[in-house]
């Protein structure tokens, strides 16, 4: 298939050949030659000594060195260094799931006080009331109201200081935004 068959025959004249002076290729005479490496005589114990060139790859480089002892690894996350590893599988299911991942399904009130029903991401439902531990940050349900639940979390932040946060999980989040 040629240029005439593909409809490109009109463009062939527009491509100009490369000029010879635009590309500089050094000749073999101009190419730099490696410096001759010194040879070292290795005595074997007899008169037949061999000449061996030193190998620069085998010699240690002692000009620059870095000793990282006593310093933290900059590529390890800070939270991992604090000992906050994976969540313990022996914890109850409500303490393994974050508060933002749970859904508040219902609030039931009766003679024994208010109780809320939450659903975890795996589809399981649980009942919570005041004093129930919930969430991975040592959260405790402090109140169950008609509109939702209030969880108080006590945790250690990235800087190592103790923090307390109040998290409100609403039954109908759209109503609370108005």
* Helix fraction bin: under 10%
In the CATH scheme, the class of the domain at 88-176 would be Mainly Beta
The SSE string, one letter per element, is HEEHHEEEEEEEH
How far the N terminus sits from the C terminus, by CA atoms, comes to 70 Å
Cα shape: elongated
How would you characterize the overall build of this protein?
- With 178 residues, this protein is mostly beta strands.
- The chain has a domain at 88-176: SH3 type barrels (Roll).
- Helices cover 9% and strands 29% of the residues.
- It is built from 4 helices and 9 strands; from the N terminus they run H-E-E-H-H-E-E-E-E-E-E-E-H.
- The strands form 3 sheets. Strands 6-7-8-9 form a 4-stranded antiparallel beta sheet. The protein has a 3-stranded antiparallel beta sheet with strand order 3-4-5, with no helix packed on it.
- The longest helix is centred in the first third of the chain and has 4 residues, at 3-6.
- The chain starts with a helix and ends with a helix.
In short:
Helix content is 9%, strand content 29%. With 178 residues, it is mainly β.
Q: What's the arrangement of secondary structure elements?
A:
Elements: H1 3-6, E1 40-42, E2 50-52, H2 78-81, H3 93-96, E3 103-110, E4 113-119, E5 125-128, E6 133-134, E7 139-144, E8 148-156, E9 162-170, H4 173-176
Antiparallel strand pairs: 1-2, 3-4, 4-5, 6-7, 7-8, 8-9
